[in-house]
Amino acid sequence: MRLKLNLSVLSKHAEIPVNYQYELSSWIYKTLNFGNPEFSDWLHSEGYLNENKQFKLFTFSRLLIPKYKINGNRLKILSDEISLIVSFLPDKAIETFVTGIFKHQKFGIGDKQSRAVFTIKSVERTPEPEFSNKMKYSCLSPVFIDKIIDGKTHKKHLSPADDSFEELFSNNLISKLLANDRFSELNPGKVRIIINGKGKKNGVLIKAGTPQETHLIAYMFDFELQAPVELQRIGYYAGFGRLNSQGFGCCKIIQNDPG
Asked: Are 68 and 77 contacting, i.e. CB atoms less than 8 angstroms apart?
């Protein structure tokens, strides 16, 4: 299920940190906990597992802001109305409660320097796309792929130009399929990703200003995915690449090729 949350900006001269993804992720978890504490606890502590890999199987876009200005590490919101895409892999355990819990929610994002408050004006559930074996996507939040190097002591954050990017991108998508009991018996077949251009580099701080601060390098790009329909569905709803529940890998469909 994919929801578009239409937000009203309540703060005058609204300004938030450029790195706000962690705060959005925390708010989504809190909202899920309010709607269904047992499911939220399971999602946070266990999630979907495949060979000791854990997947939350949800993602979200960046804030979709018609007019804004960036000044250093601050993002000034110049629009009164903005939106946010929140996307979950369809599951009966989710569908029974998720749609309603976001309605009329009020929340804030920020730090000691600046903060903005929003209220959810309306929630739109987007219709199920028609998936095919060849589809084109565009990133709504950057895709993060990394690789262990130097004897498992360091990780390299990969760009789409890296030779390992396509393989790791594909393996991550297949692992998500195998982590869900509904799809674990399916044969994922061959997966191919064709990236349009080099992508736009995005540096993202997680837990900025804390001892746990982490600097990640991710990329925004358009791409074609050649893969079975179920893998297309999983990537669309749960996100492509790693760390989807922290706001990475949310994409929109820009073309569907039924042939």
From this structure: yes
218 half-sphere exposure, CB direction, 13 A CA radius: 27
Query: What are the counts of helices (DSSP H) followed by strands (DSSP E) for the chain?
Result: 6, 16
CATH hierarchy code of domain 2-125: 3.30.70.1890
Task: Let me know: does 127 contact 64? Beta carbons within 8 Å.
Answer: no
CATH 3.30.70.1900 holds for 134-256: yes
145/240 Cα distance (integer angstroms): 9
Q: How far apart are CA 173 and CA 195, in angstroms?
A: 16
The single residue listed with the structure tokens 């495949």 is 50
Inter-residue contact 39 to 32 (CB < 8 Å): yes
Positions of the chain with pLDDT lower than 50, given as ranges? 46, 49-50, 54-55, 259
Q: What is the pLDDT of residue 192?
A: 92
Same-fold call for 2-125 versus 134-256: yes
Rounded Cα distance, 228 and 191, in Å:
8
Q: What is the pTM of this model?
A: 0.88
Both tokens of residue 60? 């979200």
Nearest-angstrom CA–CA distance, 112 and 144: 28
Mean pLDDT, the chain, rounded, equals 86
> Tens digits of per-residue pLDDT, 47-69?
554 455 544 678 999 999 999 99
CA angle 89, 18, 27 (to 5 degrees): 40
Contact 50, 231 (CB under 8 A): no
Which residue is it, tokens 């799809």? 183
